[in-house]
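Reopening closed ticket. The problem is back. First fold of the pair:
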Amino acid sequence: MPPERTPPDAPIFALASGAGRAAIAVMRLTGAGCDAMLRRLCGTLPAPRRATLRGLRHTAGDGTPILLDRALVLWFPGPDSYTGEDSAELHLHAGPAVIAATADALVALGARPAEPGEFTRRAFLNGRLDLVEAEGIADLIDAETEAQRRQALDQADGTLSRLYDGWAARLRIVLAHQEALIDFPDEDLPPAVEQALLDELRSLTREMRTHLDDGGRGERLRRGLLFAIVGAPNVGKSSLLNWLAERDVAIVSPRAGTTRDAIEVRAVLGDVPVTLIDTAGLRETDDEIEAEGVRRALFHVKQADCVIGMFDGDTPPVNLPADAILVRNKIDISPPTTNRPDTQTISVHTGSGLAHLTETLANRARALTAAQAGPPLTRARHRAAIEESAGHLAAALDMHWPEMRGEEMRLAMRALGRLTGAVGVEDLLDTVFSQFCIGK
């Protein structure tokens, strides 16, 4: 016989608060039968959506009732809950023994531990939110800066979903008009019907292309930027990295070639998360290990959102991107002989010019992630779906046969549906919700 499948609304539980020593631990519970479990634990069901202090009791194997904890209990009857199911929260004292005993009691009552993202997955399946909003919640949990928080909260609140749903609604109307032209060719529909249809297709295609042409700002803010510090050996790259990181993360030595592998450190510049990379000094070398470091440095130059080119003479590094930020170091011992307006002058040793350089880097980070008109794209999945939809609309505009045009429009509609989870998303669900923590 095949193994028995767990019902999709079977009760699940998870610790929603973070790990580590704390005063309170929040245990979440959702699924069919939550009300009966709460009655077994609390004696009676608390009033909906009102925190109530209750003693949590469980019966031991010999029939003796055991007091697990005195906790605040909240009851959220479905469908007006996060998941759309009957749900509850137990605000426990955060001792490991309390948490473990409560988890054991819930298992004994028929619940099972939740998988990563399973609460939000149930919310999606029960129509409480769509896939784009669910991804916004995941980003909100991971947000490190205020800018990331604002972007994620807008997405979780449905700003992107409303844009995409609006496109889908307009496309449905246009598709209905196209079907009318196909089904009633002999009804002498006015030419204005087809002209209006084509105009709307062009308008939708333009709006999608404009949305795509955002320079990846939303995606950059979500993942953080990559700033690579490059230059010849001993120009102060590691010292600058330590200054920006506000701690000693790279070894500083007068010996050339000390840094052989890329050193990465996370920082915040202009309210944007930035990964700073100190690279090996760029020079010709017979040392096999140092040569590999140089190769990796050049790789990071290609991958970086911003390149910081450091030097300590009058000649900056060569073969840098046109928008690289040039930094002349060691002005305390070797003042520049020429004034280069495109170059920041600093001394990492004395601190001269570092505040201005930091603000320059923060401004570059802000510029690379600055919001434009309309909500930004935040994921490659969104970009691929909109590119696919816009491609089908462009193909529809080139079609002379009404049936072929209608098919391209249906394909465009399907791509938008996959974006928000309206159609054909089963293969995406595991990928989307596996990014969540256990209690969400």
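Second fold of the pair, where the issue appears:
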Amino acid sequence: MPETLLFVGGARPLSFSLDMAAEALAQAAARGLRVHVTNTADVLAATEDVVGKASETSTVDILKPGESAAWAKAQDEHFDAVYALQELAQVAVAETAEAVGAPGNPPEAVHRVRTKDACREALAAAGFPQPTVRLCADEAAAEAFLGEYAGPWIVKPRDAMGSTGVSLVTKAAQLPAAIALLPDAKPFLVEQFVEGPEFSVEGVFLGGEPKILAVTAKEKVPPPFFVETGHVLPAPLPDTRRLEIEEQVAGALKTLGLRVGGFHVELWLTADGVVLGEVHGRFGGDWIHRMLAHAIPGLELYGLVFDDMLGRPVTGVSLTPSRGAAVRYLTPPPGRLAAVEGWDEVLAHPAVLHAELGVEPGDEIAPLQRSGDRVGLIVVGAETPEAASALAADLVDSVKFVTESGPDRLPGLWALR
């Protein structure tokens, strides 16, 4: 009887999520695993490729507390491993793994890292430098926080993704506009702004211990918004700074109680050292999985997780980057698109690992305020991270976006940087 992987949530109907799921399913199949995928009926219908590669699918609301765990316990089949790619499915995975006796992270640890202020408080209590943060119910509470702590400040949702609703505030008069950007009327966070270049750390737990695969350098648009426009992996850093980052991240993950699966930890390098940002008990998005696979030849990212969960030996591949990769996003100024020039040449370039364009003539390009406003991306691989970064920038520069002219428009030809 083959071992069974319960793949909670499968994939979202987004290109990078579908690509990650395809790789996870292929690596599960190579290990002889039977895969059972769960999600709501509408998501399963929208992700036919994932459904078609699964051994079985079931309709389960993965976002309802306790529903996945109750469903899994009621099944006749035994689930040897429980896994999810999606951020919002991590609580369900932890609860379900505990319910069926499979390896997993403690549910309380996942709840902690999914609640941004609780995660900050736990890290601060353990001695890790953290920006001061407060959960605010309304503008008055936020204004009181601004009066107590030096700025600038960040206003952001308590539990959201993709830079949605995140903005910089330098004075109290800007609070109403910042609060209006939040995705809902729930209590929100205000925290002190941290100055310094941003990075993320990608890794996997093996035998309960965090194994760091790479540090990724980030590029973002200037404040007031913080949308990511590029990544370089591995980050070109002196060994002393890289080791400092790795030590802090490994210590934080142990402090928070995570022990199974992948991780993606954000941080800043400040004048005083590493300041940890958000912690995620899953692999990073933004095509980091493709970058890792190029930088570490032979890496099977999801296979590592499955082997670890099933107690299989992890051997035969180096887990240290020997090449470089980069992604850059296409972020033209707003306007109605008339034409795109140079895209076919990008697709034909031999170093391009993946490229996609999400707009076509006639579409309205929105102002860049969140990740969903980016209109495309180019992922490249090279022998070094510096070469990959330079090539990605050159390819982005080669794409021209021509905007329509009209009574309220100026004709434009935009090269991207």
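Update: turned out to be a display glitch only; the data is intact. The first helix runs from residue 15 to 30. The two ends are 54 Å apart (CA to CA). Please close again.
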